[in-house]
Specification:
This protein has 206 residues and is an alpha/beta fold. 39% of the residues lie in helices and 17% in strands. The protein has a single domain (1-196), classed as Glycerol-3-phosphate (1)-acyltransferase, CATH 3.40.1130.10. A seven-stranded mixed sheet has the order 1-7-6-2-5-3-4, with helices on both faces. The termini are far apart. One of its GO terms (biological process) is phosphatidic acid biosynthetic process. InterPro entries: Plipid/glycerol_acylTrfase.
């Protein structure tokens, strides 16, 4: 209930701030099963657009543990289905918690395999979670304003969803298996970027 309420609030706030969002190929999203929604991490508001674009599906999120130190923010995060992860020392719970959620609840998972906004390197976590939870990976990309100033200028925001990636054919998530999942993901990300605007350039802010 709280997640649905908060997503409604976020939808209104994003419309007031920008009002120029376009969600493309939503028909590719699985309807009656959990999945992991993944995207390259380009802005801090990108997860908000993904959560809105993936509606009516509800999601859980990984969030760095430091955010949970603030009592007010911790309350919001927990009720928005977020769980803490130590980015320096992830530990087994970083895999076990989302796997359990995907298998035993109606919540899908939003995840950024690159880990941070300033990294293009894919991590193996999404591959392991998908394999253990027996769910598909749905790639998506965000193209739009990369600064808050440009977002307020109501410049176009596009979120495009890709075809689900099935990892059930990969026997083991060893080094080679994880590399294959990462290859499929990156290929999909590149294709989606080309489909939206091949001239889009994500510039890493130093």
């Amino acid at each position: 209930m709280f997640f649905t309420f908060m997503r409604g609030v976020v939808r209104v706030v994003l419309f007031i701030i920008n009002g120029n969002a376009h969600y493309e190929k939503k028909d590719r999203i699985p309807q009656n099963e959990n999945y992991i929604l993944v995207a390259p991490h380009r802005t801090w508001w990108e997860p908000l657009y993904l959560a809105v674009g993936g509606s009516p599906k509800k999601f859980s999120f990984m969030a760095k543990k430091e955010l949970f130190k603030n009592p007010f923010l911790r309350f919001i995060l927990k009720h928005a289905n977020a769980f803490p992860v130590d980015r320096e020392k992830p530990g087994p719970s970083a895999i076990k918690t989302p796997v359990k959620t995907l298998k035993s609840t109606d919540l899908s998972l939003v995840m950024f395999p690159s880990g941070t906004r300033h990294s293009s390197e894919l991590k193996g976590g999404v591959a392991l979670i998908a394999k253990m939870a027996k769910v598909k990976i749905v790639p998506a990309v965000y193209q739009g304003p990369l600064s808050l100033k440009d977002l307020f200028k109501r410049r176009r925001v596009t979120v495009r969803f890709g075809e689900p990636i099935d990892v059930s054919d990969i026997a083991k998530m060893d080094k080679e298996g994880i590399a294959e999942v990462e290859r499929r993901l990156q290929t999909s990300f590149d294709s989606l970027d080309q489909e939206i605007d091949p001239n889009f350039n994500y510039e890493v802010k130093k």
